[in-house]
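task queued by scheduler; priority normal; single chain, no ligands, no partner chains; default sampling; output format set to structure tokens
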Amino acid sequence: MSEKKTIRVRDVMKTDVHMIDGKCTVTEAIRVMKQHQTSVLFVNKFHEDDEYGVINAGIIARLVLAKDRAADRVNVYEINEKPLISVSPDMDIRYCSRLFARYNLMRAPVIENGKIIGVISPIQLVLDGLCELSGIC
């Protein structure tokens, strides 16, 4: 019987993660998103006992644009989502996929030694991970 190949989150995660300070305005967050061509920013911790947060275009649309709030008068910390469900870089992608399915996640930060080192989404899990596992690519 052959041994199953293990693909870890670190093998398929994206490492180009963009951070923002929670005190920044939504206007500043949008500028950073446009500059880096991303729709997701992770929000830095305010202190050691704090947790990371996330802000994305959907959150901004729902909590700022749809409510007709002024983007330059809303701080990121007011609308960011936290705490986040995170994954270990050493997690098997099969378990990561189960976690995504169980909690209906679209992405998760990859945290090692208390720091965000990457981000994982179903796109990487399927297109990179499953592709390699099954040998179809």
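post-processing summary
- The two ends are 23 Å apart (CA to CA).
- The helical segments are 9-12, 26-36, 57-65, 76-79, 93-103, 122-134.
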